[in-house]
Amino acid sequence: MPHSAMMVGSGNKTKTCETTVTDKHLSLDVMEPPSKEVREKVRSVFGLNDKIIKESIQQLKEWLELQPHLPKEIDDARLERWLIRCKNSMEKVKKSLDLYYTVRTTVPEIMTGWDTNADWFKSAKKVCYSAPMPQLTPDCDRVILFGLLTSNTKDFDPLDFCKLHQMGLEIRISEDYCMSEIFIVDLLNYTLAHVTKITIPLIKKFELCGIGGCNVRVKAIHILNAPPFADTLIAMLKVALRAKIVSRIQIHGNNLTTLHEQVPKSCLPTEFGGEAGSIAENWGRWTKKMESYNDMLLEREKHNSDESKRPGESPRSSDLLGFEGSFRKLDVDLCDMALPPLDERTKQAVLAEIGLNKDSLKEAVRVLKEWLEQQPHLPSECEDYRLEHWIIGCKNSLEHTKACLDMYYSFKNIMPDMLTERDPAGDWFENITSTVFVVPLPSLTQEYSRVTIVGPVHQDPSKFNMADFCKLGLLFHDVRRCEDVCLSSVYIADLTNFSTGFLAKFTIPMAKKAMEYHKKSFREQITSIHIIGSPKYMEFIMGIAKVIFSPKLFGRIHIHSKGNETLYEYVPKKILPNEYGGDAGPFAEMQSSWKNHMKTYRRWLLDQDKFKSDESKRIGTGINSEEIFGFDGSFRQLSID
Q1: Phi, psi at residue 582, to the nearest 5°?
Q2: Which tens digits make up the pLDDT trace of 222-235?
C-alpha cells in the first residue's frame, strides 16, 4: 500500500498551502506504511472512522480560522494524527495545537534552525541518533531509539540532539500512524562528561516541545546499558519530567531478556538482539528521509504563534515550563558532584604513558570481553569503561587485568561482609560517613596521580565501626573504578582528630583483609602516603602500619610533623583544599559532594551483589582464603584488643 493511503484524500500528492509531501519523501521507506488493518485498529480504539475524522477535521479548521494568533495552514493528515494522539478529544486537540505553535515562539533554540544542510546537522547526525524503527509492535506502538554513536564528548551538544529528535517528530506527524511510542535509550557510549552537558532546563524544554506540544503518548522508556552514574541522570529526569512519564522508566542494565519480554525482536535493531537491521542502517535511512524533507522543515519554522494577536494574556515561560524559562537558578553543575571528567588531551596523555591510545585501548577491551565469555565461573557483564580503567590501572598488562578481574569477583564469596549489601541509603553509610571521610580531590597531579584525603570527621569514635570503614573504603574504590582515569594514587591521612578511641576499635586482621582485596582486585599504584596532624602516639600507629602494609608500601610513608609545608613538596597547593593551605576550594564542599555522589550509585551497588564468581564452575583448583591471606581468612585467632 502506498504511503498516500495514510492520508485523508487520494492521489500521489497531498498538497496544501503549507507544504507539499511528495513521492520523493514517501519513497524513502524508513517506516512501513500502515496497512488497512493497522489503520482500522488504531481508529477503532478511539471510536474513529472516516466520517467522524472528516467532520472533526472540518471543525478543527473552522476553529483555527477563529484563532487570530495561530496559523491556518495545516493538512488533513496531520490533523487526523492529532485526533489519534489526543484520543479523539476535540478540546485536547485544540490545546495541543495551540501549544504546538506557541513553543515555536517560546523555545526557538529547539524549534528553529532545522536546516539539514547546516554544519550542526551534519555534525550531530554523526554523534547521536533518534531513530524510529520500521515496524510497529502488535499493539501498534512505534519504537524510537535514542543513543550516541561515539563516546567522544567533544562534538556532543544535547541541544542539537533535541533539534534532531524534534525534526524527526515533525516528519512522523505527517507519515506515522501509531497508538503510542516506546522509547529505548541506550547509554552505552555515555560518560559522566556527557551528563555534565545536560541540564534540567533543557530536559524540561525537550518534554514541552515533543511530548507536550505534539501530544506524544509515551508508553514506556527502556534504559539499556545503564552506567553506575545513571542514578544521577535519573534524578535529573525526576526533577524535569512529569511523574507520569518518570513512572514509565525501566532500567534493564545489560539484560536484554527483560526488554524482549516487552518489545518484540522484530522492532529492535540487531545490537539489542533484534531482527530489524543495525542502528547505523536505520539511522542512515532516517537521516536521508530528514534531508529529503529539508524544504518542508524550513517552511514549518515560519508557522508559529503571533502572541501580539492572542486574545487575552500570552502564556509565560513559567506557566509552560513550571518555572522561569531562564532557569538560571536551576542549572546543575554535575562536576560538583563527582570527579570532573578528564579532557581528551589529558586522557590521551595518560594512555600514552602506558603505551596505549584510543584504538589499542578499545582492542584491549574487546580481548578482555572475549576472555570473560570463556570463563565459566565469572560474570561476563562488565561495562566497557570499567574494563578500560582496569587496563589503565594494570599499566596495560592484560594478564594482570585478567588476574584482577578474577580476584575481584572471587573475593565477593570470601568477604561478603565488606563487598555486599553496600546500600548507601542505609544507616551504616550515614554513621560511617559522619565519622570518617574518604575524599578524592578533583584535579590530578602533574604525574597524573589522584590524591585522596582520609581521616576522622571529629574526635568522637562512638559511631566508628571498623567493618563499615573497610566497606566504605572498598565502595570508594568501586566508584573510582567506574569513573576515575589516573596513573597512580597519593593518600593523605589527616590524623588531626584521631583519638585513642578510634585506635581501640581498629583491628589489624580486618585491615589486612581489606588491603589484600584492594591489592589483588584493583592493583592500585600507590606512590606515597602522607600523614599530617600526627598524634603523640605516632610510633604505635606506625607499628600497626608496618604489619598491615607491604615493606615496599610502608617505605613510601611520609610523616609531616611540622606542618604542611613539607607536604607541598609532594602535592601542589593548587589541587589541595583551602583548609590544607591549597587553592582548590573548601574541603567541606568536596566532602559533602563526594558523599552525595556515592549515593547516586545506589542502584548499581545493590545490583553488583549478584555479580560474583561461581566456584562450582571454575576450571581447576578453587580459591582458598588461607592461600590468599596467608592464614585463615576468618582471623578469629588474630582478633586483638
Answers
A1: -100, -170
A2: 999 888 777 777 77
359: CB partners within 8 A, 6+ apart:
none
Question: Going by DSSP bridges, is the β-strand pair 14-15/20-21 parallel, antiparallel, or unpaired?
Answer: antiparallel
Q: Which of these, 303, 299, 304, 295, lies nearest to 116 by C-alpha position? A: 295
User: In the sheet that 436-440 helps form, which strands lie side by side, from edge to edge?
Assistant: 436-440, 449-456, 488-494, 526-532, 557-560
Domains along the chain with CATH numbers: 3-321 (3.40.525.10), 335-641 (3.40.525.10)
Between residues 468 and 6, the one the model is more confident about: 468
Local structure of 325: helix, strand or coil: coil
Torsion sign, CA atoms 576, 579, 585, 590: positive
CA-to-CA distance for 485 and 390, rounded, in angstroms? 10
Which residues neighbour 5 within 8 Å (Cβ) at sequence distance 6 or greater? Answer: 33, 34, 36, 39
pLDDT at 333: 37
Show the beta-strand stretches assigned E in 449-538: 449-456, 488-494, 526-532
| Structure-derived torsion over alpha carbons of residues 98, 103, 105, 110, reported in degrees to the nearest 10 | -150
User: How far, in Å, are 139, 177, 219, 623 from residue 142 at the CA level?
Assistant: 9, 9, 10, 50
Q: From CA 611, how far away is CA 408, in angstroms rounded?
A: 10
CB 529, CB 567: distance < 8 Å: no
Residue type, position 284, single letter: G
Output the pLDDT for position 430: 95
pLDDT tens digits for 402-420? Answer: 999 999 999 999 999 999 9
499 Cβ contact list (under 8 Å, min separation 6)? 456, 459, 461, 535
